[in-house]
Amino acid sequence: MGIFGKRGGNREERAAEIADKVASGKGFYGRATRAFLGQEDFARVQESIGAYKSVQEVQQLLAAGAPTVPAVVVSLADTGQLVNHDPVVDLVLRTSAATADPLTLRTVVSKLRIPRPGDQVLLIADPSRPGGYLYAGDGVAP
Q1: What are phi and psi of 62, to 5 degrees?
Q2: So what's the pLDDT on residue 117?
Q3: Could you give the CA distance from residue 91 to residue 104 in angstroms, rounded to a whole number?
Q4: Beta partners for residue 41, in sequence order
Q5: Which residues, 6+ apart, have CB-to-CB distance to 121 below 8 Å?
Q6: How far is CA 100 from the centre of its chain?
Q7: pLDDT attached to residue 9
Q8: If we measure between CA atoms, which residue out of 19, 81, 27, 97 comes closest to residue 56?
Q9: pLDDT of residue 56
Q10: In sequence order, which residues have a C-beta less than 8 Å from that of residue 31 and are 6 or more positions away?
Q11: CB count, 10 Å around CB of 49?
Q12: Cβ(94)–Cβ(40) under 8 Å?
């Protein structure tokens, strides 16, 4: 029990709740972050939190057995951002459909398994954006 009442959930749930408030700019943490950072830096924070949340969503979709789509890495660019010490990168990918245009994804990749141009990776259809994809790694268990 906390000083001002009972707090439900564990530390991870509380951290996720705070991250949501920061990303949305609501609540004490969100307003304080928006006030202390400029608009450009606040946008970067929102992007990083979005990349972190997409990693969690991919893990849930893979656990549920969602189908994956193979893709080949065309190029990769570092954004200079880190999430849990893992880099956030911009990936340009080409799916197996020969007529498809290259896809660009901003995602978190493991610093131990950074994809290189020519490597095959897996994508999962994004349930929140029809026609969009989420990066699902290289399909090799760590």
Answers
A1: -65, -40
A2: 93
A3: 5
A4: none
A5: 70, 71, 72, 73, 91, 93, 115, 135, 136, 137, 138, 139
A6: 23
A7: 64
A8: 19
A9: 76
A10: 25
A11: 17
A12: no
The whole-angstrom separation of Cα 82 and Cα 20 is: 18
Question: How far apart, in Å, are the Cα atoms of 53 and each of 1, 65, 117?
Answer: 28, 19, 25
Q: How far is CA 54 from CA 78, 106, 126, in A?
A: 18, 10, 9
Q: Is the dihedral of CA 13, 128, 48, 25 positive or negative?
A: negative
Sign of dihedral through CA atoms 73, 77, 83, 86? positive
As a whole number of angstroms, the distance between CA 11 and CA 72 comes to 37
Strand blocks (E) in the chain? 68-83, 86-95, 103-108, 120-125, 133-135
Distance CA 12, CA 42 (A): 22
pLDDT in tens, the chain (142 residues): 456 655 556 777 777 777 778 778 888 888 888 888 878 888 877 777 777 777 778 778 878 888 888 899 999 999 888 888 889 899 999 987 656 788 888 888 888 889 999 999 988 888 888 888 888 888 665 5
